[in-house]
């Protein structure tokens, strides 16, 4: 299987093949409109604006599995992202990323790269860990997605290159994107 074998649903109900994004570097993210990491919509928009012309895109998938922080449907989520954060990259229909109803794309993504060790150096990291430990301890096991704004970087050939946890540095993410884009330009 490859990432290009998966189908995703747009907010209008239209089914889209991931083949649409062949030859592009992708940052695929599970998002939520009422999360403490919601400010990342703006950061991802900046990356999208900076690198879209070079073959980069962000793909956002709203999810309500973490603290019920995205109760609205995908269409409402997309509208809010555009109005509040100026998002112009694709926002898809709401999905699950863990459990029995895990969307096949996210099941594939999380099994293609190892889950990084959960770092607890900062207060924010400790708070996030404690929240997950208390409310969703199973999400700390295996390759589960632990929280909103987990990001998967996919190269131009459809290979899942890296997983970034919600608190990952956007500088690190941008450097990884630049490396993939430079490799393709050679």
TrEMBL record:
Keywords: Oxidoreductase, Peroxidase. The active site is at 35. GO terms for molecular function: peroxidase activity. Belongs to the glutathione peroxidase family. This is Glutathione peroxidase. GO terms for biological process: cellular response to oxidative stress. Signal peptide: none annotated. It comes from the Bacteria. InterPro entries: Glutathione_peroxidase, GPX_AS, Thioredoxin-like_sf. It comes from Solibacillus isronensis B3W22. The keyword Oxidoreductase applies. CDD domains: GSH_Peroxidase. Gene3D superfamilies: Glutaredoxin.
């Amino acid at each position: 299987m490859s990432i290009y074998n998966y189908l995703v649903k747009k907010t209008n109900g239209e089914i889209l093949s991931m083949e649409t994004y062949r030859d592009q570097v992708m940052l695929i993210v599970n998002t939520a409109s009422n999360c403490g990491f919601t400010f990342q919509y703006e950061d991802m928009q900046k990356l999208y604006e900076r690198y879209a012309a070079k073959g980069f895109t962000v793909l956002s998938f709203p999810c309500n599995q973490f603290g019920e922080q995205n109760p609205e449907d995908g269409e409402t989520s997309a509208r809010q992202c555009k109005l509040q954060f100026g998002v112009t990259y694709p926002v898809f229909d709401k999905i699950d990323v863990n459990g029995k109803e895990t969307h096949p794309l996210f099941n594939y993504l999380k099994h293609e790269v190892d889950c990084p060790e959960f770092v607890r150096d900062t207060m924010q990291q400790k708070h996030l860990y404690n929240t997950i430990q208390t409310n969703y301890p199973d999400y700390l096991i295996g390759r589960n997605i632990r929280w909103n704004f987990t990001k998967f970087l996919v190269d131009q050939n459809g290979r899942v290159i890296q997983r970034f946890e919600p608190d990952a540095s956007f500088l690190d993410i941008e450097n990884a994107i630049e490396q993939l884009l430079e490799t393709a330009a050679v």
